[in-house]
Every structure is written in C-alpha cells, then in structure tokens.
Amino acid sequence: MTEMVFGATPARAGDPILPRWWRTLDKWSLACVLGLFTIGLLLGLAASVPLAEKNNLPRFYYVQRQAFFGGVALCVMLVISMMSPRQIRRLGVLGFLAAFALILALPVIGTDFGKGATRWLSLGFVSVQPSEFLKPGFVALCAWFMAASQEVGGPPGKFYSFVTAGAIVVLLALQPDFGQASLVLFSWLVMYFVAGAPLILLMGVAGMAIAGGVFAYGASEHFARRINGFLNPEIDPRTQIGYATNAIQEGGFFGVGVGEGTVKWSLPDAHTDFIIAVAAEEYGTIMVLAIIALYCTIVVRSLLRLLKERDPFTRIAGTGLACAFGVQALINMGVAVRLLPAKGMTLPFVSYGGSSVIASGIALGMLLALTRTRPQGEMAEILRRAR
Length: 387
Fold this sequence. Notes:
Blueprint: H1 2-6, H2 17-24, H3 27-47, H4 49-54, H5 61-81, H6 85-109, E1 121-122, E2 127-128, H7 130-149, H8 157-174, H9 178-194, H10 199-219, H11 221-231, H12 240-251, H13 275-306, H14 312-336, H15 354-370, H16 379-386
Antiparallel strand pairs: 1-2
Transmembrane segments: 28-47, 67-84, 91-110, 159-178, 190-217, 283-304, 316-337, 349-370
InterPro entries: FtsW, FtsW/RodA
Enzyme class: transferase
C-alpha cells in the first residue's frame, strides 16, 4: 500500500524478477484493469442470459466463456508486463506480422457472421478477429520506426510508419471495418505527434482522412447507412441505438435495479457493443461514472509515467497504447449515447468477446511493461552515448 501511495522504486541490479516486477509496476493501473474485468463479469451475468436462452444454451454459458478468456487475458497481461522494452518491441513486430498475414487472408478464409463485414476467422469452437491483435503490434512497429528515425544516420522511420499505417487503414476499410481503421489512424497520429511531427503535416493527414471518409460515404452503402442513421434527428426506437438510448434514460442516476433491466432482451449486441447501456439501465449513472473513472485512471497514470521516460521507443509506444486503449472505450460509449456513428467496437475488458479481451490483455501487458519504473541514468551520460 505504501508503494501505491508514494510510487514504486527503481529496479536494482541483481533483484529477483518477481520482486523487481512488483516494485516497479504501476499497481493502480493493474487494480483498475482488474476492476474493469470484474465489472464486465457482473454485467455479463445480466446481458448474456437472453442470448444464451435464444441459442438454447445454459443461462451462464457466455459468462463462463468470458471468465475463461478473461483469465487467459490476465495471465498473458501479467507475463508480458514482466518483459523489457526490447522484448516488447520484438513481440510487437512478430505479432504484427502474424496478424497482418491473417488480415490479408480474410477475403479467402474469413466470414462475416451475417453482419456485412468480413472480419473474423471461424475455427469452429471459437472465432478470431485479427484486427484486434493487429493494433498492439502496429503500435510497437511504428514506434520502433519512429524511434529509429531519431538516431544519427537512422532510416526514414517516420515515412515507413506512414506507409504501414496507410496500408493497414486501407485493408481495414475494405473489410469494411471503419471503426478499427479510424482507431489505427488515430494511434499513428498520436505517436507521430509525440515523435516530433510538424503540426501542418498532421493537419494534412487529418484532411486526407476526411477526404477518405467522404469517398467512403459515396462508395460504401454500409458506411453511408451508418452515417445517415447518425445524422437523422429522429431515432427509430426499434433500432439498437433507439433501445440503448431509451435504456440509458430509464436508468437514471441509481438504475432500475440488478436484473430488472429490459434492454438486454431487445438488443442483440447487449453483451458486446452496447454493454454500457445495460450498465446504465440496471446500475445507473453511478456505474457508468465508475467505469469512466477506471479508464481515465489507466490512461492518465500511464501518460504521466511516460513523461519521465527518456527512451524514444518506450515513450512513443507507451503513448500510442494508452491513447488507443482510452479512445476505444470512448468510441464504444460515444456510440451508445449517440455522440458517434455506430462502429461495432467493444468496450475493453468489459464487453464479451474472446479476441477483444485477449488482445486487450496483450496491449495492457505491453503498456504496463513500458510504464514500469526504470533507472533513467544521468542526462550527460545519455548525451555522450548519442554522439
């Protein structure tokens, strides 16, 4: 508890790995992740029962699966959080290459599960969404490129990262998966800004993104339908947004009571994309504010710790991971309250989904590893090494 209040102490050479890991870890962020996972199981007890009954499965079938996948995700997160920045970089690059190969294969071996977008690989007993695993690897790869470009005589890493980001955005938009594409582009912009990109260049990329959105609106019926639904001032009460909006209004400040909500019986995605509507209806605004506070704590604490980091790769990659994690949560909740167009994006560690929770575990493990307290060395020594 003392370390949680006053901060962790730097690692000492020769320490056993577990005591060193525990002493240098951001324990508040770890506690918030565990809190989000616990809330996700609690909400799953209500939100997933209607789907289980509809599919003639045991009432808590999906909750048990979420507990299993969540347990795997937490174990993966803890193991990865013990790695060094160099190991994180290697893991990220290898993970990116594997996920990128699977995305290239999606048009041939992928499936859409009737949702109009080919995003999944069906393995029979489980489905995998490669784009979820691509994000942490993408952040690590682009951070490596950008950090290398800052070295004397280094490669044009920023240009390489731009080409990589552009290729990924195009591939995801072709699925179509505009939500993940926008998240990848946002992550790249944040990292590019931290790496020292001129503001005019960032504005140019943002303008290209807007132009791409306009083109997608005219070329993709799937994209245009979602934008039109968002811009329509009237909300059809029979749509998912209509059900979610009504549930949030009915919940009020304290909610209608545990198990008393009705939106879970109307929303087909109540356990995934619209889990926050179930939380708002049954537990009220208090639960929603608690969830928001947990996400904000993880992001803000991570960014504050990264401010002290002098290693370019660690600083850039950590910032990209933290911002991508926070923005994904923001997009999910923004869709539920109709601040953003529908994007089909899960709420990290809270929504049901094997790919989502395990990928979140990988990303948060990398973030916890990069934000561990490390000896930074004297600035004069760092400058001497840079010569």
